[in-house]
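Hi team, as promised in this morning's meeting, here are the two structures we talked about. I've kept the exact order from the run log so nobody has to guess. The first one is mostly here for context; it's the second one we should focus on when we meet again. Sequence first, then the predicted structure tokens.
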Amino acid sequence: MSANLSPNTSGQFNPSEMMDQAAYYALAKSKKPTSMVIGLAIMAGVFIGIAFIFYITVTTGNAQTGWGISRFAGGLAFSLGLILVVIGGGELFTSSVLSAIAVANKQISFGKMLGIWGKVYIGNFIGATLLLALVVSAGMYQNDGGQWGLNALNIAQHKLHHQPLEAFALGILCNLLVCLAVWLTFCSTNMLTKAIMVILPVAMFVSSGFEHCVANMFMVPLGIAIQQLAPPEFWLAVGASPEQYADLNIINFITANLIPVTLGNIVGGAGLVGLGYWAIFSRPQLNAVPASQITPLFTDSDTKEITEMNANKTVNQFMDINAYVLHPEMPVEIALDNLLDRHLSGAIVINSHNEVVGFFSEHDVLVELWCEDYLPEKGRTVADLMKTDITSISSKDTLLQLAEFYAIDKPKLYPTTDMGIATSYSTLSINDRARDMRIAKPRILPVIDDNKFVGVVTREDVVTQLRAIYGERMQAVKTEETDAIVA
């Protein structure tokens, strides 16, 4: 399973490509440092709590509105929570269970997955508790003459009256929809599209009364806090008493709701969605990088005015057909040792069919070490770390096409949209703009003919081929007093 994904040439994703994106999403969760995971989880706990505040506000005082319409309006309001998580950034337990895909792909261990879940769960609870403290301190339960708080009490109490099997099943149904909402976001890179994608699945689970463990971390403790802390004036205003809500306590919350709902959320998200799609789209071996992810540098329509000296020089005349390559199943430590021994910064990764599947570099190792707090997981392979966004060339491409690729970033030199509309202006000449550019291009390029790996070309190879333009090679001779350059 590839570890990254780029849209195909049509700008759309097909279901199998969405599976690849989900695999990358799952693996990425394991690469974040603990402090980042917990911080993002706290933010997600706050976001979901904010969504429930919105839900309570929208559904309060709707006695004259139809039951379904009122709950649908509340569901639309609650979708704000997942939108904030997806767009703003957050680690939500109910979507983090999709990391089961990384376990199925043998990219992380089962223990590592449970560690991720535990960190996110604790962070979500902390975030929900912090928001709860603010809401109670602000006295929000007294809004609308106390009807806001009464609505919150009734919602919280209702959540404790499910039988364990009911709570478990409602948890499955809830996270089936939450993870499907997240799954839908894999089909687009546009933020507005992602936001719209999550609205209806979330609105359905909320309006239907399905159970979400992180939402309940805020909602039920809110009811408990109101039952314990609300002043007598509140109870007089709403015509109720604390005794009517005596079952709102921590023990009932944990045993009657949180535990069965959490287990149901795991089954619904990790089992039905994550592992369900994985079972459908999983592949028995690492495939070649799809054509949509290998970007050729040049097309047949590219025409250049080139010097007579290099008019006929093509890649197949100077590429390295014996370049060192790696294989995806190779352990990271062995691959790194081989690169260091050969003084290489990276190497192409090919499978048993001589197809390019990725590129593994020193940079990938450094990123992995940083993400793992310099305590890397045992058993990692090249396939776990390698990049799969590949830029390739053909053996028929010319030397000067390669030289221009390394020298010039055309989108920066000629900043226009696809319609030819200029996106920025400069008083500098073309040559000055070219000299001011700071570009990063892959130093090593795989040569691919008929989808098969045939060699590599490096930036050094290109410069070596162009060296003759400067004339004959000069030899530096060092004397005792000075350095003399002689032919």
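And here is the second protein, the one for discussion:
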Amino acid sequence: MILEAFLLVAAALFCIGLFGALTQQSVVMLMMGLELMINGIILAAAAFWYFLASAASDGQVIVVAVVTAMAIEMAMGFAVVTAIYRAQRIDMTDSATELEG
């Protein structure tokens, strides 16, 4: 495959994620949109690494570190959403704006 094909798929993932993040009111769907956006960025970075500097292993390390950070971030986000839902039965972003610490 060629670099442009990977970048096209990455751009499509990012755009679908952006649309999902901007249009959904459910917190879980919002986080899924953010996940798609990050996956698009990771795919573009991995494609650039593969086609431009595949001899160096720096790109692989960066991609693995970003995927690990993304997994941790999403797990923490879902834990916060679950805690908010259990405490106050709020699962929409409009209702969550009324929370005060």
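Starting points for discussion:
The radius of gyration is 17 Å.
Residues 40 and 58 are 19 Å apart (CA to CA).
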